[in-house]
């Protein structure tokens, strides 16, 4: 229904003369120009969109540098905002949108007052390419596939560039697991996780903060870091690359209150780089972990 109403608005707006050459105007005041326009389905409210997006004022002041990101399509925050424009797009489309600068700063960029260097007649332009879109429930699966691909590529690169070091590290991990009779099955990426205390079954959400207690060790038992010793859990957003890949993957396997041990191969840790003075390059790591809590 909302999309149908929007399309009617677009048709009626085509007769309006645009003050920006090459752009058309919707009845809500959004100026738009498509460079590539496909057919098919369009994103719905709440769906996630993979976009390449940039925003400028007067084509000179960069408000948002051109970056690839994942955004969620939201209800319009004001008439003629960028979400109205994104709802008009199809997969593979590229377009340019000119929006009201005052309202965009206030409602979308969180600045109650527009910066003094700009004025209300300045041209705020978003250039967007919509690569793909999908339901929010698909994010975890796609993320996992992407992480596995990146980890596989990283492991292959390390093996090609450092064959002796990687072979030695792989043998050290295999020997350690065998010696300590650790029979857990590895994940597709090669991570091992052993549960030592069951949790309540509630799983953390990708992108939301989790609170973890941990003690990190080398395979020889050397402790290199511990939140337990500090007496303060470590907090980080899950699954967005702010920790080593083995953590991002391993914590997703846990539930609230659960304790366990992560055995992380070198390529899911710091790879061919040392970390501080205590973790040499090509180190396999083990973490005693507890998922204390997380935001839903």
Descriptive account of the structure:
The chain is α+β, with helices and mostly antiparallel strands and 296 residues long. The chain is 26% helix and 29% strand. It has helices at 2-13, 82-87, 101-108, 139-161, 163-179, 227-230, 245-251; strands at 24-25, 31-36, 48-57, 61-72, 94-99, 124-134, 192-197, 209-218, 223-226, 234-237, 259-264, 285-294. The strands form two sheets. It has a six-stranded antiparallel sheet with strand order 1-2-5-6-3-4. Strands 7, 8, 9, 10, 11 and 12 form a six-stranded antiparallel sheet that branches. Helix 4 packs across helix 5 (163-179). The longest helix has 23 residues, at 139-161. It is elongated.
SSE topology:
Layout: H1 2-13, E1 24-25, E2 31-36, E3 48-57, E4 61-72, H2 82-87, E5 94-99, H3 101-108, E6 124-134, H4 139-161, H5 163-179, E7 192-197, E8 209-218, E9 223-226, H6 227-230, E10 234-237, H7 245-251, E11 259-264, E12 285-294
Antiparallel strand pairs: 1-2, 2-5, 3-4, 3-6, 5-6, 7-11, 8-9, 8-10, 8-12, 11-12
Helix pairs in contact: 4-5
Give average pLDDT, whole number: 90
Order of helices and strands: HEEEEHEHEHHEEEHEHEE
Stretches where pLDDT is under 50 for at least 5 consecutive residues are 1-15
Percentage of helical residues? 25-40%
Strand order of the largest sheet: 1-2-5-6-3-4
Helix/strand class = alpha+beta
The total strand number stands at 12
General shape: elongated
Number of helices in the DSSP assignment: 7
The percentage of residues in β strands lies in: 25-35%
